[in-house]
Amino acid sequence: MTPRGRFLILSSVALAASWWSYQALAQTWPARPIRAIVPFSAGSTIDLVGRIVAEPLSTALGQPIVIENRGGAGGSIGSALVAKTEPDGYTILIHASAHSAAPAAYPDAPYNAGRDFAGVALFGSVPNVTVISPKKGIKTLKELIEAARKDSFTFASAGIGSATHWAAERLLLSAGVKATHVPFKGGPEALTDVATGRVDFMSIGISSGLTFIRSGQLIPLAVSTQKRSTVLPDVPTTIEAGYPDSDYAFWLGVLVPAKTPRPIIDRLHAEVNKVLQLPALIEKFKPQGIEPMPLKPLEIDALITKEIANNIAIVKAAGLKFN
């Protein structure tokens, strides 16, 4: 046998061994509990949705999924923690579109949102709804914008660079008005201050804001999606209210450290998507206003890369200051 022939045979054996090793890895993982980091406080939209998914996903994987809330800095604290963990599938990140807004708000963050993570699966997208206390006497988004144009208004968020921050900034940019940002550690704390009237308004995920809306503590003015939410069908979109390019896609899903083996990513992707088809989970999602967003892992990576570039470009063009 020629040297070239021996080389080809050895190469084939090595490739076959590697393939079988990867297959075995996918079948044996997970062999112990999985830690899921939620980079926002308990009760936030991503926390609520993440817990809904984690319960049946834990059953499907045959291992407990332990959720840890590591809120702060618009999700950057929890994300940095996951970026530095061993890429073995035992630490996952349950995050939202704030992930791709972070580079624009935190250019000096100790991780790279595009390169240090790999997309796994998206739970769907949730409309953000702009809300205000009835104490303010404002009933429409146009009234809010006009009031903010004449006076000094404040808006709350779940943290600098969070989806709630970004949705409000997009709306203000479209309307051509300014308002003072008041960041909180999480959505629930921010909602409470808006409901009491201490902060003027907020753009929050429907999942978190719905209880306040239904109890009459907050008035919904508009949703930041291209079409109306099935949960709040009588509430117009920000575009319908007259503010073009003010919509903001608030996706939620699972990410892992970038070097996580592909078989683990593929297995987790498949299991998450099976769970999302469960009738019981679909029923739980309905009140949350979650719309399906079925993307493959590499498509999620491409979406994040595109959003990062767009967000940085908008910040530069508008001269936004995230502080």
Summarize the structure.
This protein is of the alpha/beta class and 323 residues long. Helices cover 45% and strands 17% of the residues.
Could you characterize what this model shows?
This protein has 323 residues and is an alpha/beta fold. The protein is 45% helix and 17% strand. About 2% of the residues have low confidence. The protein has eleven helices and ten strands. It has two domains: 163 residues, D-Maltodextrin-Binding Protein, domain 2, CATH 3.40.190; 96 residues, 3-Layer(aba) Sandwich (D-Maltodextrin-Binding Protein, domain 2).
Which word captures the global form? globular
Helix content: 40-55%
Oligomer: single chain
CATH domain class name of the largest domain? Alpha Beta
Into which percentage range does the β-strand content fall?
15-25%
Short key terms for the protein model shown above:
2 domains; five-stranded mixed β-sheet; alpha/beta; 11 helices; D-Maltodextrin-Binding Protein, domain 2
Question: How would the blueprint of this fold be written?
Answer:
Blueprint: H1 3-28, E1 34-38, H2 45-61, E2 65-69, H3 76-83, E3 91-96, H4 98-105, E4 117-125, E5 128-132, H5 141-150, E6 154-157, H6 163-175, E7 180-183, H7 187-196, E8 201-205, H8 206-214, E9 219-223, E10 251-257, H9 262-276, H10 279-285, H11 297-318
Parallel strand pairs: 1-2, 1-3, 6-7, 6-8
Antiparallel strand pairs: 3-10, 4-10, 5-8, 5-9
Helix pairs in contact: 1-9, 2-9, 4-11
